[in-house]
Design goal:
With 375 residues, the chain is α+β, with helices and mostly antiparallel strands. It has 8 helices and 18 strands.
Amino acid sequence: MRDSDIIVVGGGLVGSAIAYGLARCGAQVTVLDGADDVLRASRGNFGLVWVQGKGHGFSPYARWSRNSAQLWPVLQGQLLELTGIDVRLRQSGGFSFCYTEELFVQRRARLESIRSALAGDYPFEMLDHAALKARLPQVGPGVFGASYCPMDGDVNPLKLLRALHSACSRMKVTTLNNQMITRITHRPGLFTVQARSGTVQAPRIVLAAGLGNPVLAAQVGLQAPVRPQRGQMLVSERTAHFLDYPTLHVRQTEEGSVQIGDSIEEVGFNDFTSNDVLARISRRAIGAFPQLAGLNLVRAWGALRVLSLDGYPVYQESPSCPGAFVATCHSGVTLAAIHAHSIAPWMAGGPPPDGLEVFSGGRFKTPLLTPVPLH
């Protein structure tokens, strides 16, 4: 006996966006989410809807990110209408700072390469210090220049997660929290999941469990070799408004606090903070905006990104267990719109989005490491 049309394992930004999209397609959906102490990237990220720089050397990912950014106003409007929650999408462009002339030249070459690969459909500007200061008056003298992309922006990531959960609830998605998946079995037309609350069955299943995906994917003939990469962040006390745009490492929230990040650290499954890294990202932020030196810091945290071997998403239906899908990426905010509007309809039984085959897990021949289970 089946419990729904499709099971989604993972209730973070990736799983919730897909579950929402599946419900919009008319599917009966059951979400199995983990306990509060699992490693959750969805509750520790920077909240950027970011396009510039992504997909250098791999144009399908640049196109994928751009297409999702273009869909974001649609997703925002739908969530607001359905739930009344404003996720605070701000999509008036974003800046990536270059602190030296050498980095400025390298940044220009990188973005020009991506624009060429996308046949020119990739707007950006390179701004020297004077041009940058005209747009961001508080920028410090240590910033040589910046790249600007009008497709970039940010959201409140916690409000986004809440809005997706609320939307799923309103669309009659069943969510079972505090689940540990112990086993997935398959026979033609039916998947059986052994979870903490008991047995759940459906003819389709989506694995969107982040760092828990490798163990689960192997049970249905799929590969999802992902690894953790830590990023640390800081939040300041509230201050007067000074920053109208998000930047890659500093953004001011709607409440007035300043969010500062992020580091890139290969430390395994350690999501703690460290004083040396926090000091380094603080110095970088003060270099960008000297006025931050006078603010008190009120919060710090570490969180783990979910990265595949090459850093790009993995989307695939199992060739040996049809109806089983895997979805994993490290850009759950940026790609939320395309997950809801392109990935979910495919998983519900529609045709795959154009070019999706390049994101197959089959591109990896061996797993990266011994993964952690979802618990």
